[in-house]
Amino acid sequence: MDALQDLMIGLTSFVLYFGLSLAALLLFKVAYAAITPYDDWQLVKEKNTAAACALGGAIIGFSIALGSAASNSVSLIDFAVWALVALIAQVIAYFVVRLFMPLISQRIKDDEVPAGIVLGATSIAIGVLNAASMSY
Asked: For the whole prediction, is pTM greater than 0.85?
C-alpha cells in the first residue's frame, strides 16, 4: 500500500511540475516574441530558416534551464522563481547578441541563416550555463 501511495505522490508532483513547466514555456514564448521586433512564429511559418534557428535555440536554451530548475528546486515556488531567472537570462542573451550584432533582428527577418544560428547557439549556451549554475 505504501508503494501505491508513494507512486501517487510522485505522480502528483510530476503533474504539477510538468504543468508549471508548460505554462513557463508558454510565458517564455510570449515574452520572447515581445522583445523581438519581428513575429517569430509568422517567419517560421513562412519557412524562414534563420528565425527557426533563433527561436528554436531560445526554446531549447530556456528548456535546459527549466529542466535544471525542476530537478533542483525544493518547492513549486522555488521552481517558479528559477524559471523566471531562466527567462530573464534568455532575454539578456538576446540583447547581448544585439550589442555585438546590432542588425541581427533585420538579418533574421531577411532569413540570413548565420545570424539565426549565432542567436540560437548563444541561447542554448546561456541555457546550459544557467542550468549548471542552479545549485544550492
From this structure: yes
